[in-house]
Amino acid sequence: MDHKLLFAKVLHEQGELPFDIQTIKQLIETPKRIEMGDFAFPCFALAKHLRKSPAIIAQELQAKITDPIFDHLEAVGPYLNLFLNQEKVSQHIFKQIMEQGSDYGRNQNGKGGTVTIDLSAPNIAKPFSMGHLRSTVIGNAIANLADKNGYQPFRINYIGDWGTQFGKLIVAYRKWGNAESIQQNPITELLKLYIRFHEEAENNPRLEEEGRKAFKALEDGEPEAIQLWKQFRDESLKEFSRIYDLLGVHFDSFQGESFYNDKMDEVVEILQEKGLLVESQQAQVVKLDEEEMPPCLIRKSDGATLYATRDLASALYRKRTYHFVRSLYVVGNEQSLHFKQLKAVLKKAAYAWADEMEHISFGMMLKNGKKMSTRKGRIILLEEVLQEAIERTETIINEKNPNLSDKAQVAKQVGPGAVIFHDLKHHRTNDVEFSFEHMLNFDGETGPYLQYAYARCKSLLRKANFTPSSQVNGVTDEQAWPIVRLISDFPNVIRTAWNNYDPSKIARFALDLARSLNQFYAHVHILSDPDHQQERLHLIYSTAITLKESLRLLGLKAPEEM
Ligand code: ARG
């Protein structure tokens, strides 16, 4: 139940306030200190309407309103402070969670509408960069939030599988390549070929020309070129899919850039028909002067289309095919202008749905304050990062819990989970400093800390042989209240996290919940008092479900033992 809403309703009805319920709800505050109550209603705004002082209004309201779920109300100066009835609220939560299980917190606001989410989108034959990792985990969490808010997410991996680099790769492969090593280590080998091509091209400009020719052959559909391109693409995708398995992310579509090769003429025609295409410096562009942006390049003088042309084609295709109610692009900050232009061009072409397109941008991954690059020389392969996280986790588990039965499996859930959580706990637009020490610290603000909190709940419930019951009382321990409050706020957190495309709201919530849980453990001996054991176990049970669901929304697994 949304207690804030309930308070607003009661104020509206019993208090006969001259504001509507939503307005009242917006006025209600959540005091910083728990001793000040669960909610506070400031009476200043009413003073003018009622021609009384705020303090008098607060006192009058206190006398007028009651509800079984309220423990008591206090008029403190101009504020009316509400204390909820802990026993009743917790009992209600226990019931709700027992009935709804992991569906707790779900809403139907999205009415089943499709949200396409463009995420990950690595470039074939290049290593999976930290930027692509960020896009993958942020996009996946947002897709999970879409689903939880009643939408139908559709995850699209718009892989970079076309472009002049494939001409260069074909040339390099024919000169220095070897099919077997590409099969074994596609990304590394293709990257080597790519780097070698550029090194040799410095002294041999003819190579560039050969590369252009090879790409032309590819565009013209020459079978041998196509076959090589396919091979590079398939092998790279296989390697990427190992990373996606480690991260536990799946996609509904892998339609990448090449899929739109035959869909761009239409874009050019549409823009021409609508009179938007103009010649500028030997290229065809859409001017965006009124929007105070540089022109959007559509076609070069040699007929070649551009990144934007392809994204226009893909936007049209996605609207027609999936009838999205929203279309999200989870791509780094540095492409902000591109997405602004994309939207502006579609709006100029009178596609009203362009308003439903949104660029979900994010900051960089840093190492020692510098951009973590996967380019030449300083290559850090993401798969190695994930494997290292797994190995380090195994070492920690060996120290902490050497008797754990399925250590390797748990490490596989905890290691990558640590990497994912470290990314998501920061607001996405911030830069993130990469650090194994920070990610894997079981006592810090980390994924493993949350997973451990969950496993601890489960172990306690196992030990107590717990089964939930609808006959249970509420919980009255002082240290239980912060937990109950957090759990009852979960549906709100889910809404705000989605409305702001902000998974860090869920991450913060989970950290707060785990911290309150540890406080509770520190003060209350759950199994030692048979009179209160049942409600305390229900509290643990409800916390476990909420924690696990928070982890799932973020894309983390929750091992039952750890
Ligand atoms: N492959 C691109 C890159 O690595 C990202 C593509 C993002 N999605 C899109 N629809 N443009 O920069």
TrEMBL record:
Record field: catalytic activity: tRNA(Arg) + L-arginine + ATP = L-arginyl-tRNA(Arg) + AMP + diphosphate
Molecular function per GO: arginine-tRNA ligase activity; ATP binding
EC number: 6.1.1.19
Annotated Arginyl tRNA synthetase N-terminal domain residues: 1-84
Transmembrane segments: none
Enzyme class: ligase
InterPro entries per UniProt: Arg-tRNA-ligase, Arg-tRNA-synth_N, Arg-tRNA-synth_N_sf, ArgRS_core, DALR_anticod-bd, Rossmann-like_a/b/a_fold, tRNAsynth_Ia_anticodon-bd
Residue ranges of the motif 'HIGH' region: 122-132
Keyword Repeat appears in the UniProt entry: no
Cellular component annotations (GO), alphabetically ordered: cytoplasm
Principal location listed in the UniProt entry: cytoplasm
Residue ranges of every copy of the DALR anticodon binding domain listed in the record: 450-562
Subunit (UniProt): Monomer.
PANTHER family with a match to the protein in the record: ARGININE--TRNA LIGASE, CYTOPLASMIC, ARGINYL-TRNA SYNTHETASE
Protein name according to UniProt: Arginine--tRNA ligase
Gene: argS
